[in-house]
Structures are given as structure tokens and as C-alpha cells.
Amino acid sequence: MKTSFTDAMLARTGKLYLQLRLGKQKRVQQVLDQKYEGQYRNAGLVLLFDLLMAFAAVAVVCLIAVILYMAVTHTSFITLNS
Description:
Elements: H1 5-22, H2 25-35, H3 40-73, H4 75-81
């Protein structure tokens, strides 16, 4: 079966992630079978989604910080438009 470039990259990333995180090959295989349905690609997807969610959380916090900063420092802007 031919795999796409994306699947191959996710599988490599998932394998590297599990090997760095768990170390022993026996433990890697146990976690892979139990949590990721025996596919390194699924481990790569979980890692990718976790990273995207972390970036989204940082973006939301930054947006809230900018809004609060603008509200505190530009009080005339708020009172003129109210």
C-alpha cells in the first residue's frame, strides 16, 4: 500500500516522539498498541494536535492581553465610543 508524504512524516514524528518520551522499545510498543491503535501515525497526529492547541491557547491569551492593554491605556477611546 502506498503511503502519502504526510502519513510518512506523521509516522516518523510519532515514532521519534514515543522513543524520546518512553525510551525502551518494549514500553514504546505497549503504549503504541494501547493508546495509538498500533500506528505511529496516530501518535504523530496526537502530537500535532497538542502543538496546535498550545499555539491556539497562546494566541487567545495574547489577544486578551492586547484587548486589556488597549482598554487600560486608551480610556479616552472607550469613553468616546460608548
